[in-house]
Amino acid sequence: MTALLLPLAYLLGALPLGYWLARRRGVDLRTASPYTLGLENALRRLGLGLTLLSFLLDFLKGYLPLLLGRGLGLDLAGLLLLGVGVYLGHLYPLFFRDPWPLRAKGAGVLLGVLAALPLEPALGLLPVALALGLYALTGYASLGALGLPLGLLGATFLGGFSPGEKLWAALLFLLALWRYKENLGRILEGTEPRLGNPLPLPSERQVVCAFLIHPLTLEDFWQSPRFRWARPLVRLGLLPQAWVERLAEFFRPMKVGEVRGVRTADGREILCHLISAPLLPHQIKGKPELAVRRAVQGARLARELGATVVGLGAFWSVVGEKGKAVQEAVPGIEVTNGGAYTAGTVKAAIPAILAHFAQSGKDLKATTAAVVGANGVVAFGIARQIAPLVGRLILVGRDQERLEKAAESLRKNLERKGQAPEILVSTEVGAIKEADLVFTATSDPNPVILPEHVKPGAWIYDEGVPPDVHPAVRGVPGVRVIPGGVVRLPGAARATLDLHFGAPDQVPACLAETMILAAEEAFSRKSLGGEVKAENIQFFVERAEALGFRVVE
User: Fold this and answer.
1) Lower Cβ count inside 10 Å, N or C end of the chain?
2) Residue 95 in contact with residue 14, Cβ under 8 Å?
3) Which residues share a beta bridge with 494?
4) d(CA 316, CA 305)
5) Dmax over Cα atoms in the chain, in whole Å?
6) pLDDT digits (tens, 9 = 90+) for 476-507
7) Which has the higher per-residue pLDDT, 21 or 468?
8) CA-wise closest residue to 377 among 412, 343, 428, 342
9) Is the dihedral of CA 456, 462, 466, 471 positive or negative?
């Protein structure tokens, strides 16, 4: 009998009743995602009537199959197995694709299962009491919901139930634990909404965006409490780094932090979700198909979290044709690689760098400067900016013919103004060995400037995304590497993770572009692919200034 009822329970659990109900009421399901809202916020967003009706439908999905099983004489083990079946259908509907942005966790289904079980009153009330107690004590609806299957599991042990009954109760709890794993991770990281929190959704006074990050080294893994437990195992050699990297390839993107407290000059608050798929740089570079797949999944998660824009940070910025493939796969959210404002930060930073360089006792007119990546829009813009101020300029790029045309155009323009520095071109990075001042802005996923390319004592401004300068270059005597594209956020901003930009309120320009794009809703200005339009660069420079973003010089 159980074998006949189990498929029926699964199919009933798979029915997307909440989705159908919300569609009939005209509710925007993206802003109704329980992943974003939590129970209290869902009540405020959907209204008491719709929330209770949706919850009742889920309750009936859990209750009716077990009620039928009781009527047909199933024992407690059989009823618990039906409960597992209906919950599995709710979580993983193979035949009915659940169109909610992120499927509900099934607290109503679990309560319906509990209500239908023939338990003694004291044992039957234990799961409900535990759920209410956890919710009241912590303010987390997710912990309250987990109290239901946990209490049921405890009841099977306290009541002296059979091994089979304990097994199915344990399976029900493990399914719920797996479904709530992201909530538990966010609780550990302090980013899970709790009772009384404001809606983490776009509104008139709040802008919501997301930004994809990744660990730069293995040490960055341990920033997240959900992975920190493995750190001692790696340090003791019990868990090889190769195993950690291999396991990381199976992790889907997850929310690992937030940038909070960003308040623009016009009084709006910007909340940025930090999303990570824990792939190291060499994994992103070495497995491009996996990288694109994870970036697409990250963009989908950003959409489910209520973000209107998702930015691709560090090595994510070059995957999928610099974001094009990600945007095509996830049309429901705006995707940017941050290239326009990154280029715009040059305008503010370079004059200050040149002034500091001159103050160090060096004559700019007697200085040899080099620009790496001069075939690109950003780097050639740097070349135009510094050419009138230095004595000699070396343009380095991959296309010799284009370099020569660019150099000739630059020479003619300077000659008309009575400024004629010596301009050389090269396709070899080693040509910068002669330069005292180096500017680099490529989109190469690998470092292009190595220690053997650099003159001792040189100043290097690295505007590359990802960085163009190999970390070992810092070991060359007297070399000063200046990271480009660093922006200070307005308000009392802070990132909950160390983003490696010097201070909690300092972020890469690509992240700042994501925030500005979301705040201004100027989605036509987003940066995708390799092209960076001059008008978009100017737009972000002007709007950043107006909103209170400041370039760190």
Assistant:
1) N
2) yes
3) 260
4) 19
5) 99
6) 999 998 888 889 999 999 999 988 887 889 99
7) 468
8) 343
9) positive
Sign of the dihedral defined by the CA atoms of residues 271, 140, 44, 14, in that order: positive
Beta strand pairing call for 459-462 and 480-483 = parallel
Three-state secondary-structure class, residue 520 = helix
What whole-number distance in Å separates Cα of residue 276 and Cα of residue 257? 9
Q: What CA–CA distance (Å, rounded) separates 551 from 26?
A: 43
Name the DSSP class of 248: H
Distance from C-alpha of 384 to C-alpha of 392, rounded to nearest angstrom: 13
Question: Which two three-digit tokens encode residue 221?
Answer: 């893994």
Tokens 């079946």 -> residue = 85
424 in helix, strand or coil?
strand
Could you tell me which residues come within 8 angstroms of residue 297 by beta carbon, excluding any fewer than 6 positions away? 252, 253, 277
Percent helix, strand and coil across the chain, each rounded to 5?
55, 15, 30
Apex CA 231: angle with CA 228 and CA 236, to 5°?
Answer: 160
Can you give the three-state secondary structure of 158-198, one letter per residue? HCCCCHHHHHHHHHHHHHHHHHCHHHHHHHHHCCCCCCCCC
Burial of 508 per CB tally in 10 Å (0-12, 13-18, 19+): buried
Report the alpha-carbon distance of residue 227 to residue 233 in Å, rounded.
Answer: 11
The sign one gets for the Cα dihedral 48, 50, 55, 56 is positive
Q: Which of 533, 536, 530 is nearest to 321 (CA)?
A: 530
Number of H helices, E strands in the chain: 22, 15
> What pLDDT digit, counting tens, does each position of 358-395 carry?
888 888 888 999 999 988 777 888 888 888 888 899 99
Q: Is the peptide bond before 466 cis (omega within 30 degrees of 0)?
A: yes
With a CB cutoff of 8 Å and minimum separation 6, the contacts of 171 are: 84
Q: Rounded distance, CA 303 to CA 326, Å? A: 13
Question: How many Cβ atoms are within 10 Å of 412's Cβ, its own excluded?
Answer: 9
Alpha-helix residue ranges (DSSP H) falling in 305-454: 319-322, 324-329, 339-359, 377-386, 400-416
* Burial of 514 from C-beta contacts in 10 A (0-12 / 13-18 / 19+): buried
Q: What is the pTM of this model?
A: 0.77
pLDDT digits (tens, 9 = 90+) for 86-121: 998 888 887 654 444 344 578 889 999 999 999 888
Looking at per-residue pLDDT, the higher value among 290 and 219 belongs to 290
Give the whole-angstrom CA distance, residue 487 versus residue 472: 25
Compute the half-sphere exposure of residue 321: CA atoms within 13 Å on the CB side of its CA. 9
**Dihedral sign, CA of 515, 519, 522, 523?**
positive
Structure tokens at 174: 């493990």
Distance, CA of 256 to CA of 542 (rounded, Å): 31
Q: If residue 276 lies in a helix (H) or strand (E), which one and from where to where? A: strand 269-276
